[in-house]
Amino acid sequence: MVAMNLSAVAVAQWAQMEPDVTVHDPAISSWIRGEQPPADHLVTLTVVVRVDDNRRADLEQMFWEVSDPKHVNYGKYQSRDAITDILAVPQDRVERIQDYLATHACTDMKVAPNQDVISVACPVAAVESALNTKVHFFTHQEHTDVQIVRASQHYMLPENMSRDVVMVGELLQFPLLKPKSLSNLASTMQGSGKWPDTCESRTCRGLVTPAVLSARYRHPNATDGEEAVPGNSMAVAEFQGQTFKTSDLETFSSSCGVPQGVDIVVGEGKNDNGKSGVEAVLDIEFIRAVAPNVPLTVVYDQKYSLLDWANQITSMENSPLIHSVSYGNDERQQSSDAFMFSANTAFMKAGVQGLSILFASGDQGVCGREGCGGGFFSASPLRFKPDFPGASPYITTVGGTDFLGAGVGDESAWQSGGGGFSDTFPIPPYQQEAVAAYKARSDANFPPQDAWNNTGRGYPDLAALGGEKTRYCVQAGRFQGVAGTSASCPVVAGIFARLNGLRLAAGKPAMGFLNPFIYANPSAFFDVKAGTNKDHSKYGFTAVEGWDAATGFGTPNYEALAAAVLASSAPLVV
After folding, report:
1. What global pTM score does this model have?
2. CATH topology (fold) of 202-567
3. Is 413 in contact with 528 (CB distance < 8 Å)?
4. Which residues are catalytic?
5. Block means of pLDDT (10 residues each) for the chain, length 574 residues?
6. What does the alpha-carbon distance between residue 546 and residue 398 come to, in Å, rounded to a whole number?
């Protein structure tokens, strides 16, 4: 009897972490569980340290103030060290975590400058002991050369330690690897666009080229000799082997007459002895085609870890002002509330520093990567799958469009562009009026209410060309046509990088978190009023006049945006 009581006490001393995540389900997962790694196999963990609620609230209040063009504190960004002071993570909290990990033979601990994240290397035996779990190798069923280590059951921490830790990432999160049949939506198909050829390669004929984007979105083209603005910068994020080859950038530059090149590489993103990843060169070639005189950084990591990336860019001494990311996941897809909460904290830190973060909305329409269910032979009800971080209120999300006709002109929503409403986050203040106006429209032809959350944050915020009707001409070993919001996002990011340049040249601070500005200036975008993002579902969201959950406010009009950013009330830099 006594032994049973002692056992019960021992069990009670452990607290289960991320309890809302479903541990690997082989019936629906693309990952196959394999053998257990050797006991001495090293695993790198990201430990998110708990920030006191009142301190996080202070950070959020500052985030909204410095991001709002109507607020007196707009543009009054804070340094990395100032954010450390705002968060005020107790040193003894950090030390308790370090001591606990050290007692389990974990080594090489690195505490982030803001004291809210600890990166640590642990042998498998230590992971299993410290976190009361089991880990296995997992191999992707299609990308069989990719192997990762993940927990095969929930992990735990002693109750006293669980009060210091939000989560340990990403033990339960499995990265998205695109199906090879859809990877980057690449094709050698001839383009159908009716406009003059502006690249020498015949493959580019009828495809979207830098000149097409300049004609549609009214930004000066790359040959206008615009000078670089001191202090301006931009970046793209690459993961999962998506490296670039310098010769591909040079070929694209020569053929299409636009300057190319990468100024800074963080990680091993350059691979001149191998071959380019289509995703990487798409991001690089077209953000640079739109903003040729803005210094470009490639932030590369072999694994896709949203938390690691966010911690990395907010820990840099001089982080690029614009960050374009063409990766994401579903809110439901192994993303716990703690995971999303931690990512949102990092996004707020970025905004308080004056950084703009843009994410692609996804390429599977309203159904996301898991699918909608609700089919004729499906036992599950119809339910849309919103994207994360696309549906986060703290970043800017870019959807996809097609040209409505055969030439440069009006656009329609791309049927596979991600969009909809979050199941996790409420409607943020900056978009309440726009979303309410959308829901009041009689011509919106809304999907069944059971399929989506009527009170969730709506996305995307804006859009750009990305559909399969007219693909982008990309050089990656050869010229080919590529579609997807992975094309839309770097284009919009490049435009806002140029807008940052206008503000910096006028002595004003960078734009920071973009959404309050975007929602205050709807007339600065080309409204998209046709198309539905239903993908392969029967239902989707319809593009209508004004904001909608297929294309946001539409696509950028650089001339109108340039006037708006210079007219904003942000103070001069002193």
Report:
1. 0.94
2. Rossmann fold (3.40.50)
3. yes
4. 279, 283, 486
5. 38 84 80 94 95 98 97 96 97 97 93 97 95 95 87 95 94 75 55 90 94 95 73 95 94 95 94 90 96 96 89 95 89 80 96 98 87 62 90 97 96 96 96 98 94 97 94 95 95 97 95 98 98 93 98 98 83 50
6. 16
